[in-house]
Amino acid sequence: MNGGQASFSGQAPGVMCLTSSVCNGVWIQSGSYALRNVQISNNKGRGVYVPNASVSNSLITGCNFIANSNAMIVTGTTYMVKGNICAANTASLSYGGGAGNDVTDPG
What is the pTM of this model? Predict the structure, then answer.
Protein backbone atom coordinates (compact mmCIF):
# COMPACT_ATOMS: atom_id res chain seq x y z
CA MET A 1 0.00 0.00 0.00
CA ASN A 2 1.53 3.32 -1.02
CA GLY A 3 -0.45 6.24 0.39
CA GLY A 4 -3.96 6.14 1.78
CA GLN A 5 -5.71 5.54 5.06
CA ALA A 6 -6.94 2.45 6.89
CA SER A 7 -9.37 3.34 9.67
CA PHE A 8 -12.04 1.01 11.06
CA SER A 9 -14.13 1.28 14.21
CA GLY A 10 -15.93 -2.03 14.04
CA GLN A 11 -16.18 -5.09 11.87
CA ALA A 12 -15.49 -4.17 8.26
CA PRO A 13 -15.28 -6.23 5.06
CA GLY A 14 -11.78 -7.52 4.40
CA VAL A 15 -10.51 -6.73 7.90
CA MET A 16 -9.55 -9.55 10.24
CA CYS A 17 -11.16 -9.07 13.64
CA LEU A 18 -10.17 -10.49 17.01
CA THR A 19 -13.80 -10.22 18.15
CA SER A 20 -16.87 -8.64 16.59
CA SER A 21 -15.85 -5.26 18.02
CA VAL A 22 -12.02 -5.43 18.00
CA CYS A 23 -10.58 -5.24 14.49
CA ASN A 24 -7.13 -4.68 13.05
CA GLY A 25 -6.28 -2.11 10.40
CA VAL A 26 -3.94 -4.28 8.31
CA TRP A 27 -3.48 -8.03 8.93
CA ILE A 28 -0.69 -9.72 6.95
CA GLN A 29 -0.45 -13.53 7.06
CA SER A 30 2.11 -14.46 4.39
CA GLY A 31 4.55 -13.28 1.75
CA SER A 32 6.22 -9.87 1.89
CA TYR A 33 4.80 -6.35 1.94
CA ALA A 34 5.63 -2.65 1.84
CA LEU A 35 3.59 0.03 3.60
CA ARG A 36 4.63 3.57 2.67
CA ASN A 37 2.99 6.90 3.55
CA VAL A 38 -0.18 5.34 4.97
CA GLN A 39 -2.23 6.56 7.93
CA ILE A 40 -3.66 3.79 10.08
CA SER A 41 -5.85 5.12 12.87
CA ASN A 42 -8.72 4.52 15.26
CA ASN A 43 -8.57 0.72 15.34
CA LYS A 44 -9.71 -1.04 18.50
CA GLY A 45 -7.21 -3.78 17.62
CA ARG A 46 -3.77 -3.36 16.08
CA GLY A 47 -2.84 -0.88 13.39
CA VAL A 48 -0.66 -3.48 11.66
CA TYR A 49 -0.71 -7.13 12.74
CA VAL A 50 1.80 -9.59 11.29
CA PRO A 51 1.45 -12.77 13.39
CA ASN A 52 3.12 -15.24 11.01
CA ALA A 53 6.89 -15.71 11.40
CA SER A 54 7.17 -16.80 7.75
CA VAL A 55 6.51 -13.24 6.50
CA SER A 56 9.79 -11.77 5.22
CA ASN A 57 11.44 -8.96 3.22
CA SER A 58 9.04 -6.27 4.41
CA LEU A 59 9.01 -2.50 4.91
CA ILE A 60 6.95 -0.05 6.99
CA THR A 61 8.07 3.56 6.46
CA GLY A 62 6.63 7.06 6.48
CA CYS A 63 3.35 5.92 8.05
CA ASN A 64 1.22 7.46 10.80
CA PHE A 65 -0.15 5.14 13.49
CA ILE A 66 -2.60 7.18 15.54
CA ALA A 67 -5.12 6.16 18.25
CA ASN A 68 -4.99 2.39 17.78
CA SER A 69 -5.01 -0.11 20.62
CA ASN A 70 -1.53 -1.23 19.44
CA ALA A 71 0.27 0.66 16.67
CA MET A 72 1.76 -2.59 15.36
CA ILE A 73 2.77 -6.11 16.22
CA VAL A 74 5.28 -7.37 13.66
CA THR A 75 6.98 -10.77 13.43
CA GLY A 76 8.97 -12.40 10.66
CA THR A 77 12.44 -11.89 9.28
CA THR A 78 14.28 -9.28 7.26
CA TYR A 79 11.95 -6.34 7.81
CA MET A 80 12.55 -2.61 8.25
CA VAL A 81 10.43 -0.23 10.33
CA LYS A 82 11.68 3.36 10.03
CA GLY A 83 10.47 6.94 9.93
CA ASN A 84 6.94 6.35 11.24
CA ILE A 85 4.89 8.52 13.59
CA CYS A 86 3.24 6.65 16.44
CA ALA A 87 0.95 8.75 18.66
CA ALA A 88 -1.93 8.20 21.09
CA ASN A 89 -1.80 4.40 20.78
CA THR A 90 -2.83 2.53 23.93
CA ALA A 91 0.00 -0.04 23.99
CA SER A 92 3.62 0.04 22.89
CA LEU A 93 4.98 -1.44 19.67
CA SER A 94 5.98 -5.08 19.55
CA TYR A 95 8.55 -6.63 17.26
CA GLY A 96 9.28 -10.33 17.05
CA GLY A 97 12.73 -11.77 16.83
CA GLY A 98 14.28 -12.85 13.58
CA ALA A 99 17.36 -12.26 11.53
CA GLY A 100 17.99 -9.13 9.50
CA ASN A 101 15.45 -6.82 11.17
CA ASP A 102 16.08 -3.05 11.34
CA VAL A 103 13.78 -1.10 13.66
CA THR A 104 14.38 2.55 14.58
CA ASP A 105 10.90 3.67 15.65
CA PRO A 106 10.31 4.04 19.42
CA GLY A 107 8.74 1.11 21.26
Answer: 0.78
